[in-house]
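Ticket #4471: structure export looks truncated?
Reporter: QA, pipeline team
Priority: medium

Steps to reproduce: submit the single chain below to the structure queue and open the exported record.
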Amino acid sequence: METGRQRIHSKEDSMSEKQTILITGGAGFVGSWLVDKFISKNDVSIVIVDDLSTGSTNNLPQVHNDRWTFIKCDINNYREISAVMLAFRFDYVFHYAAVVGVQRTLDNPSAVLKDIEGLKNILDLSKNTGVKRIFYSSSSEVYGEPVEMPQNEKTTPLNSRLPYAVVKNLGEVMLRTYQSEYGLNYTIFRLFNTYGPRQSPDFVISKFISKALAGEAVTIYGDGNQTRTFCFIEDHILATFSAYEGNQFINDVVNIGNDVQINVVELAEIIIRQTNSNSKIKYLPALPDGDMQRRQPDVTNMIGLMNRSFTPLEKGLEKTILSLPRN
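Actual output as written to the record:
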């Protein structure tokens, strides 16, 4: 079987009929953007499930029509999610419901472990209800400390050790296992730092913008020389949607991120400048765990999916800042 961008002939090859799609975590940041992308199409019907623990009904589509439905549901509860999946019989599942963010998952490690049960529920129900493919939001955290730069989907070893990363890695193993044993197809998206409008306030760019707009000190852990790459949400959604629409990367893995590195101090300085803020940078002790010094994806596959260049960081930050409500 050919993988990567090569087309795979399977039961997915026909997209002529209207598709019914489940998006878990669809009231969250990335999930809600994906929902908006899908409902801009006329040939899909979307069911959004979210327990609203971190998602918000404010993120649900502003357009009201019969092509999307929201159901408050905890996917870790088999009874709740089985009622949804047995009622609708989905063609595709985008599984984005999870506890996300390194600090949040360090603070709530037991909650992270529950995500395993949620994925198992999705897998068991999918294989029994005719789902054609599951799209799974994994994480760049599975790579752990980089032993190869840029981090490649096929050649870079996975040396994750944080609970969040280990759970994501196990999720990838579970998907491969169900494909091997039951023929349930999957696509794994290893997500690097995504930012943009609607992002939760406890992620680095959201934090920095909030502090700068308030004129408060922008706090950085350690010396700020740790580098990151930041992917604007519109690029992220374009690539992941293309993998679905083009029947690409079936039973394969794709890095979703930008490969332009910037250190955290430079990021803070750009945001302070773009918000016309008088904020100062304040340095805090380095985090004891989970703050990798470098991270950079190999984005060859993602560029092929987007078929255009990345949104420059300053342009994406401008759009993000302008989207925020003003007092």
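Status: closed, not a bug. The export was complete when the record was re-opened. Leaving a note from the reviewer for reference: The CA atoms of residues 224 and 265 lie 5 Å apart.
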